[in-house]
Input
Amino acid sequence: MAKTKRKVPGINATSTADISFMLLIFFLVTTSMDTDRGLARRLPPPPETQEQTDNAIVKERNVLQVRLNKFDELLVNGEILDVKQLREKVKEFIANPNNDENFPEKHAKTLPFFGDVMLTDKHVISVQNDVDTSYDMYIQVQNELVAAYNELRNELAQGQFGKTFAECSEEEKEAIIDYYPQKISEAEPRKYVGR
Amino acid sequence: MGKFNKSGKREMPELNTSSLPDLIFTVLFFFMIVTTMREVTLMVKFRVPAATELEKLEKKSLVSFIYIGKPLEEYQKKMGTTDRIQLNDKFAEASEVQEYIYSERENMSEVDQPFMTVSLKVDAQTKMGIVTEVKQALRKAYALKINYSAALRQ
Output
């Protein structure tokens, strides 16, 4: 048998571009590029018994009262502040560098990498807002609180490991988080009567 | 002189389009990967507040959304102009949030359930009253990992 060379007919690919264009346009229309970002928070579990809530009595010096009224005004430990001042105030409160009597008490604790250190691990930042506080203001305050923690942790990481908190290994991160545990409590909102 | 032949027809060389499908496919794949389909039609309008300390919301399958804001104009006749909660495709009250979380959780695999995150997309102008009600409901439903959706402030 003589071998005859058979030519395979080429597939007409002119319409591939059109087809893929259609798919492309579909995805262009349905796409939403914005990645969701936000402030991650953890809510406390619901109170199970009445006793449990009563047990949590903390010393006054360990608490930083952050209050928001319905006019979006900020009151920190009885002092009217601007949101911009809040971060420094909170940082000072958490770290208590001068062992001030008005700031949280320090306890000795042994941590990996750091050894024996004095920590303000009993501090609590109590946020209370009014029913009519705007959500925007609430987020600004939350943001400043988280920023204060993040800055302190970053400073600590820089001082101890010479890198930012995000670059630390898991163990290092854990030690830093133990050094500055995030303690933000949210009280039930209050309806202030008048001003 | 026949050196310059002016009578000859000049033809435009045809553009080679054989690589066009490949190019389009590359763009297509890019969009296919980055795309996130919006599952619900928004019935409230919201502009999230701006903040700086943001974390990315990862693993979309673990996230349930709660929208709070003023109803869109076409719904304002029926629902009024006060802030409303939207769960899935309908308006809801704060009392329905708990049930919504339970049903969302049921749809997840058991392994994923502890990692469930609730993203609160709330309009910046909303009053905290309604947000707090939702937060209390979330606490009751043990959906404790939440994420206040916000835009990055430059």
Observations:
- Chain B has a mean pLDDT of 83.
- Chain B touches chain A through 53 residues (CB under 8 Å).
- Chain B is about 30% helix and 25% strand.
- The longest strand of chain B covers residues 63-71.
